[in-house]
Design brief:
- The protein is an alpha+beta fold.
- Helices cover 30% and strands 35% of the residues.
- The protein contains four helices and six strands, in the order H-H-E-E-H-E-E-E-E-H.
- Strands 2-1-6-5-4-3 form a six-stranded mixed sheet.
- It is elongated, with a radius of gyration of 16 Å.
- The termini are far apart.
- The relative contact order is 0.20.
Length: 152
């Protein structure tokens, strides 16, 4: 007789993160995040870096900064590339890609990043360590600043 693993499987984790793509399913993702989640966006040299406590702080931080540079009216496509872990381990790694248009000159936003996440026994995310492509982010931030300064 097989027993159920104590943590979400890699397939369940892929589903959980896929819910981030659409505003219509973001609540489903948020329901799988502990209210006091600790999130660290690693780095000190880019637009998104910082540590946040709670889902609301994380959501506001990322949304506000993304709205600075991404034209969300054109949509954002999220692809889950792979999930490693979960099941018997509380830890999992989620590799993702987003595609969108930047506000400045319609430049493409093709961003690859990795989250290392920890689940509790209720299947909720309690810790996130996010590793972003900082050169990519900084390039877009600088292009956007120049765009705004030039009044374009």
């Amino acid at each position: 007789m097989s027993r159920k693993a104590p943590y979400p499987s890699s397939y369940e984790i892929e589903d959980i993160f896929s819910w981030r793509e659409s505003p219509e399913t973001m609540d489903k993702f948020s329901a799988r995040v502990a209210p006091n989640v600790e999130t660290t966006i690693v780095g000190d040299d880019h637009h998104f870096a910082g540590t946040h406590k709670g889902i609301d702080a994380l959501t506001k931080h990322n949304r506000d900064r993304a709205l600075d540079i991404i034209d969300v009216s054109k949509g954002i496509k999220l692809d889950i590339v792979r999930v490693i872990g979960g099941g018997e381990s509380p830890w999992a790694t989620v590799e993702m890609k987003t595609q969108a248009k930047a506000k400045s000159e319609g430049k493409k936003w093709n961003h690859e990043f990795v989250y290392i996440v920890r689940f509790d026994l209720d299947g909720k995310i309690t810790k996130i360590r996010a590793y972003y492509d900082t050169a990519h982010i900084n390039d877009h931030v600088e292009t956007h600043k120049a765009h705004v300064q030039n009044g374009s």
